[in-house]
Amino acid sequence: MATTTAPVGRGAQHALPAARGRAGFAGTLRSELTKIRSVRSTYWSLIAMAVITIGLGGLFCFGKAQSFSHVPPGLRAHAAASAISQATEMSLFGLILGQLIIAVLGALTITAEYSTGMVRTSMTVMPRRGTWFAAKTVVFGGVALVTGMVTAFASYFIGQAILSTQHINSTIGEPGVLRAVVGGGLFLTACGLLSFGLGAMLRHSAGAIAASIGLLFVVYVLGQFLPPSWAVHVDKWLPFNAGAAIWENVSAPSMLSPWTGLAVLCGYAAVALAGGLILFRTLDA
Amino acid sequence: MIEARGLTKRYGDTVAVDNLSFSVAPGKITGFLGPNGAGKTTTMRLILGLDRPSGGAVTINGKPFAQLAYPMREVGALLDAKAVHGGRSAYNHLLCLAETNGLPRRRVAEVLALVGLSEVARKRSNGFSLGMGQRLGIAAALLGDPAILMFDEPVNGLDPEGILWIRNLMKALAAEGRTVFVSSHLMSEMEHTADHLLVIGRGRLIADCTVAEFIAANSRQSVRVRTPDPEALARAAMAAGGTVRDDGDGLMVVHGLSVSQVGDLAFDNSVRLHELAPAQASLEQAFMELTASSVQFHAGMPGADGALGVGGPDRQPAVAGEVV
């Protein structure tokens, strides 16, 4: 590389425009948008989330359609009614894995700042930590919301197209269906933000991913092993069960109602984000 | 203007920065010297608000760093050139920094040209050499065209060409009237670049003066003398209170006496002289002597063993804050 000893000074360049006001949220938001779109891992993980979520739902629907085609004609009417009632959640079944991938992305969005050391550079250009944290949260939340919605709608329509070959599909206009699909997108977003908050608290990629997968998935699995008398009171409050109430069309008495359930999951996310913000503002960067 | 008052940072029982008060004046290169682990990096982190002080305060142009309206327009800092996301291109790295302070996009291309990285602007920075990474860090510091620049050990690990480039760059920046605050454990480097010195050891300020004052105040005066009769002159010099080091071949170095005193002694004792000159004490020597006393003073502290390994870039820093 050539040694550059060219003049450095102001004379060698255009003067900067005069500064007005102060550096704040808007610029930091643009900066975080540039950050998230300028690394490949963002695209890979979002594509992975969409493909796996949609693929798993599609596979599930394909299996259902196949088994339905073997049902004897006399039993078809009853079986169809049961299948149609589950058609929506069946096509959204991939969210079980999708939540884990968005959780990984959520954790990495913040922990990568620490593992690369970028957070120190970020803080020396935007030292107002609350502003920075808010901008980063909004950008990640926005990206998660858009991709989550696209994933949920694609899962639904592809799944229903497969089920429609046996006429056991639901339609988006039926009661509760649109809520479930939109809810699926919101569910992914909330899972991502929960993990983002844990990442801000733990500052370590592996730890944050383990914690969020533990909270979302392992806790859910453990809940299955509780004695029934406990499970009925505990299970519905677990993050996954609560959040899944919005897209699982079957309303079981042991579950929270759809919007209450989503609100509980959002509550977990809010606690994680608040904890992350508090630690971020108080600890040395 | 950077001003620190009673700045203190403790990590548990370790005091990384101990009651530092200083000001860095504009328009000069101020060298921030100290052995590894002396607290230089921690002090810079405190200035930039990355760490919260345990006591005292530091301001930039009268305000804490975090309260500056446009931080990048006032202070450009390079603490750790590796503190970037390697998957991002040089251009995008600088763009995301510029955007936080509302700096125009064209400024990114300008600073890339300034540091000679235009051709690799679209390449991901994890493929950069150490020197290129350092240039990228300097480009980031220059983005906001700031009046104050802070560099932490900027020449560490660079090849001679890279060192020369940084040295010229700092001089050019100071010549434009900017404040350049640069840390180093290499005394020889500061001797060539700095106008003013802040010297710290074990987190404490031990000198705040110009380079010339520092050498004058901290090095024992010495005289280089060559004579065909070294024994006679050595005897006379020691009798007069000097100390003598015999370098062989009739050459010796006398400490504790002035050039004229040595000349007079030679005359009085009829010793023939072939050479008589003041020996220029280097900053390196002055620094070694100064920090040597700080080693003795703190010898009882845990971890003091080897902690002040002057000029040993491979040594482990003794203070946690130095590790970045």
Would you mind describing this structure in some detail?
- The complex is a heterodimer of chains A (285) and B (324).
- Chain A has 285 residues and is mainly α.
- Chain A has one domain.
- In chain A, 73% of the residues lie in helices and 0% in strands.
- Chain A has 11 helices and no strands.
- Chain A has helices at residues 25-37, 40-69, 76-91, 95-116, 118-125, 129-163, 177-202, 205-223, 228-234, 239-244, 258-282.
- The two termini of chain A are 34 Å apart.
- The model of chain A is unreliable at 1-7 (pLDDT under 50).
- Chain B has 324 residues and is an alpha/beta fold.
- The longest helix of chain B is centred in the middle third of the chain and has 16 residues, at 160-175.
- In chain B, the strands form 3 sheets. A 6-stranded mixed β-sheet of chain B has the order 5-6-7-3-8-9, sandwiched between helices. In chain B, strands 11-12-10-13 form a 4-stranded antiparallel β-sheet, with helices on one face.
- Among the domains of chain B are: 2-70 and 144-217, Rossmann fold, CATH 3.40.50.300; 220-278, Alpha-Beta Plaits (2-Layer Sandwich), CATH 3.30.70.
- In chain B, α3 (90-100) packs across α4.
- In chain B, β8 and β9 form a beta hairpin.
- At the A-B interface, α1, α4 and α5 of A face α2, α3, α4, α5 and α6 of B.
